[in-house]
Write a structure and sequence with these properties.
With about 400 residues, the protein is an alpha/beta fold. The chain folds into 2 domains: about 5-25 and about 300-405, Aspartate Aminotransferase, domain 1, CATH 3.90.1150.10; about 40-295, Aspartate Aminotransferase, domain 2 (3-Layer(aba) Sandwich). The protein has 14 helices and 17 strands. Strands 4-10-9-8-7-5-6 form a 7-stranded mixed sheet, sandwiched between helices. A 4-stranded antiparallel sheet has the order 13-14-17-16, covered by helices on one side. A two-stranded antiparallel ribbon has the order 1-2. Helix 5 (about 130-135) links the parallel strand 5 (about 115-120) and strand 6. The longest helix is centred in the first third of the chain and has 20 residues, at about 60-80. The chain is globular, with a radius of gyration of 22 Å.
Length: about 400
């Protein structure tokens, strides 16, 4: 069934707002998605009826909250087709998931002179944690190059996979350009050399089906708030043998089995990596978001957003002097663009007054902007509640703004 965005929008009351006396057009979905009533209701239900600390209480509320929290973990397992529920680690988001792997993997497996590979497409969150490891261990961070269209150069990547490389960390979808990276092939090539691969899936799981077993990813990270769930909750998937081998990231609370002043024994997976009081409420909110997406249909979401992307690309290219940055034929619902003769921030400010929520700047991808020879872009990123009418409004808004600078 084709999605009906007008029916879907009923579930998102925030979209009914007027901004500067104009109806809101929300095109900043790559930064964070809006939340449907079903997610908000799940959060309300927890605090109204279920609020309790989990795993430690024998009373009814604790047992009920614990069951809901662990049921959500199983739901996440099935959503990304992990082999085991204990391969699902709750975190605060993609950034913490990457930091967890970088810290724990670095402690045990990275030594002086080793190499860590990232790509030129990465968000800062998949660069800086690895720089920490390199500085601490005396390792080297190397960058997989891209072409001018924003695509990974696979031949160059293959040549970089030598015996010094200990891990590859690469995005699944570029947050700045929308490029869909051929991660399955990159993982296959790395595994030929027994090199593990971490995938930053923050921008992929909201747009199309992810199967971590099919990808054969060693680690996969994503955030709830970029897939219609709440902020403050995220997921690290890791293959069981890697999670067993890695030392804990933080100490205290749930991650211990036995503690004496002489020695601590760590808990079993997944609790080994979940120190402290868990974010139960937002885990249940994420659970509700996954259900919402599945009810719409992940293939239907991808098909509709791809239709929006193609429509928006054609519509914006009709505007004289406007250039789209990132032209890979394999893209998710993101368009970065630059208007001739207008600073992106100035255009973004004008569009804001016309009711548009877009992102301006380097999109936490400064090295990518340097590679492309620009300071930043305007970015429109789409979700299943957006419409072609909104895209037409955006095109008209850009044309109106350009006239102001003529």
């Amino acid at each position: 069934m084709a999605l009906d965005p007008l029916k879907i929008r009923i579930d998102f009351p925030i979209l009914d707002q007027m901004i500067y006396k104009r109806s809101l057009v929300y095109f900043d979905n790559a930064a964070t998605t809006q939340k449907p009533r079903q997610v908000i209701n799940a959060i309300d239900k927890y605090y109204l009826l279920q609020n309790s600390n989990i795993h430690r209480g024998v009373h009814y509320l604790s047992q009920m909250a614990t069951q809901a929290y662990e049921d959500a973990r199983v739901h996440i397992q099935h959503f990304i087709n992990a082999r085991l529920s204990q391969e699902i680690i709750y975190t605060r988001g993609t950034t913490e998931s990457i930091n967890l792997v970088a810290s724990s993997f670095g402690k045990k497996f990275i030594s002086k002179g080793d190499t860590i590979l990232v790509s030129n497409l990465e968000h800062h969150s998949n660069i800086v944690p690895w720089q920490f490891v390199c500085e601490e261990k005396g390792a080297v961070l190397k960058v997989i190059p891209i072409n001018d269209e924003g695509e990974i150069l696979l031949d160059a990547y293959t040549e970089m996979l030598d015996e010094k490389v200990k891990i590859v960390a690469v995005t699944h979808v570029s947050n700045a350009l929308g490029t869909i990276v051929p991660v399955k092939e990159m993982i296959r090539l790395a595994h030929l050399k027994n090199i593990p691969v971490l995938i930053d899936g923050a921008q992929s799981v909201a747009h199309f089906q992810v199967d971590v077993q099919d990808l054969d990813a060693d680690f996969f990270c994503f955030s709830g708030h970029k897939m219609y769930g709440p902020m403050g909750i995220g997921v690290l998937y890791g293959k069981e043998h890697w999670l067993e081998d890695l030392p804990p990231y933080q100490g205290g609370g749930e991650m211990i089995k036995d503690v004496t002043f002489e020695k601590t024994t760590y808990n079993d997976l997944p609790f080994k990596f979940e120190a402290g009081t868990p974010n139960v409420c937002d885990a249940l909110g994420l659970d509700a978001a996954l259900t919402y997406m599945q009810n719409l249909g992940l293939s239907e979401i991808y098909g509709y957003e791809e239709e929006l992307l193609h429509f928006a690309t054609a519509r914006l290219l009709e505007i004289e002097g406007l250039k789209i940055i990132g032209t890979s034929p394999q893209k998710a619902g993101v368009i970065s663009f630059l208007p001739d003769g207008i600073h992106p921030y100035d255009l973004g400010t004008i569009l804001d007054k016309l009711g548009f929520a877009l992102r301006t700047g380097n999109h936490c991808a400064q090295p990518l902007m340097h590679r492309l020879g620009i300071q930043g872009t305007l970015r429109a990123s789409f979700a299943f509640y957006n419409t072609k009418e909104e895209i037409n409004r955006l095109a008209e808004g850009i044309i109106t703004a350009k006239r102001m600078f003529d």
